Amino acid sequence: MGEHGLRMAPPPAPARGGVEWLQSGAPVPYPEAVAAMDARARAVALGEASECVWLLEHPAIYTAGTSAAEEELLAPSRFPVFRTGRGGRFTYHGPGQRVAYVMLDLSARGRDVRAFVVSLEDWLIGTLARLGVKGQRMDGQIGVFVQGAKIASIGVRVRSWVSLHGVSLNVAPDLEHFAGIVPCGLSTPVTSVAALGGETDRARVDQALRAAFAEVFGA
């Protein structure tokens, strides 16, 4: 494995061999993460590697999805801004937020992108329950909320029926950093597991993510 736990070239993982889990401790630079994710997704599509979920953090950045509006970037010089091919609008990534990049073969999972997004929400809700937080959907919105405040975001892209990008869970980030954008184009506040008194230990968060994933997607 490379420095951050994911190779920059398609790895020789067994094809269709279940879901491989990778975890990075130190924040991973965004361009490096995207390059590695892109390479792995191509390998999955070609049948050269197994599906993969990569748990990581990024340095403090803003990312713009395909629907991002320029006026929603309120502080363009505050953190580096990256344009990305995922769906959605502006979001913040940084220390204390667990990001899960999911490189899954949707050809084997029904080829239904809307159902896939619902499953990602189910995954996050199940994870939060294990951390002592009751998450829920909000009508007309994508992601997971707690009493009207957003705690987890979803932004995915599908190429050759393999998913890229994924979800981000606010475990214990500096919530003030979200003030530089209109998060996901919403006027609703943001919250975190820490702000709600839930479990924030990284190992336990990762365990919760893996257990809830198995319930929703299978091993």
Beta content comes to: 15-25%
Distance between the termini: 22 Å
Count every beta strand, where a strand is a DSSP E run of 2 or more residues.
9
- State the CATH class: Alpha Beta
User: Which sequence of strands runs across the widest sheet?
Assistant: 1-2-6-9-8-7
Radius of gyration: 16 Å
Structural class: alpha+beta
Shape: globular
- So, CATH architecture? 2-Layer Sandwich
> Which ranges are low-confidence, i.e. pLDDT below 50, for 5 or more consecutive residues?
1-15
CATH topology-level name: BirA Bifunctional Protein, domain 2
Helix content percent band: 10-25%
Mean of pLDDT: 89
Order of helices and strands: EHEEEEEHEEEH
In words, what does this structure look like?
This protein has 219 residues and is of the alpha+beta class. The protein has a single domain (19-217), classed as BirA Bifunctional Protein, domain 2, CATH 3.30.930. The protein is built from 3 helices and 9 strands. The protein has helices spanning 30-45, 113-130, 202-217, and strands at residues 19-23, 51-56, 61-64, 81-83, 90-93, 97-103, 144-146, 149-159, 162-170. A 6-stranded mixed beta sheet has the order 1-2-6-9-8-7, with helices on both faces. It has a 3-stranded mixed beta sheet with strand order 4-3-5, with no helix packed on it. It is globular. The two termini are 22 Å apart. Mean pLDDT is 89; it is low at 1-15.
